[in-house]
Amino acid sequence: MSVANLGRRATLLLLPALLVGAVMAGAGKKASAEDTDPTAKKERCATRVAIAFTGKETTPAISADPQGSVDALVADPAFVERFSRFINHEFNETPGAMEKEDASYFLMKYVLENKLPYKDMFLGQFKVDGNMQGNQTTVTADPEGLGYFRSQPWLLRYAGNELEGYKLVTAYRLMQNTVGLTLVASTNAPGAAIDTAARTSNPGCVGCHGPADKAGAAPWFALDRAARVLTKVRRQGNTVTFTPPTEAPQMVADKMVNNDKELVQALVDSPNFSFNVCRLTFKFLYGRAENVCESKVFDACVNEFKSKGTIQSALVSVAKDPGFCQ
Ligand code: HEC
To answer: Is the CB of 206 under 6 A from ligand 1?
Structure first.
């Protein structure tokens, strides 16, 4: 893939209104008696709401007022479990080798149960950790916390293998988790061809990694710039340590940032953050990305999320729209 293509692809991924998938299910189908019978329609709506939120069949309470029951469903333990698993699946390519590595699952659960703002996932003062065996994972208060981004099991999981200790894998995860950036790494095989100098000068690499030259043009997500404001990883035998960054500040996410916290803050403050919340909302409720005909519902979701801050508010706004049950 050429660098120009990469740039375009990354931009496209961040513009929800341009997403494809405009084919409407059932378009052109003739309305049948069942479609118009209000009782059957309401029961279909109840099933849809119940499955979407809890993964289970409808209950008398949901059947009585399907879309009206959505406010209560976002506090239902079955929903909390289902949504936390969904987020963990979206934020990690595979399940963690140990339970405590699935920090996004545990913190999502905590944030939902305590009705906290969604941004606390990434900026809240927490620590997500377990015991030596990797179990009994808990969320605890930690003034040094940055969501789960400074929790040891997560840091170790995503430290990467870059030869000089630049945490490119961490840098990418931070962006993927917060704003949904999706890049397909073209290579991560260790060896001479992938040293830092090659990566930040080779035209086939700078489109994602950014040039070594600080003033050089780079995409907002330039992975090597982001990695330069994170700690570096050092491995000696079985011992892994993280050393403070020495090459900050860097221009990333359209801001000059000095450290991980400022980088995450810049990502959370960007419009891509609320877009990604509503993209996740659609994916959870519909099992697919939003399509062009849904831009009104999508924009309403973004506005609702911006004013209330909880991911529950985004889910409620989409699920209460009449379109959800049509
Ligand atoms: C399409 C964007 C893209 C391009 C182009 C790209 N990379 Fe990457 N690179 C990534 C991403 C994303 C990661 C993080 C991978 C991960 O999370 O596993 C990465 C990670 C790396 C790593 C670190 C792997 C680790 O385990 O720490 C190296 C080294 C690397 N890339 C080298 C290169 C080189 C050399 C080139 C050019 C030949 C290149 N990359 C081109 C996206 C890209």
So the answer is: no
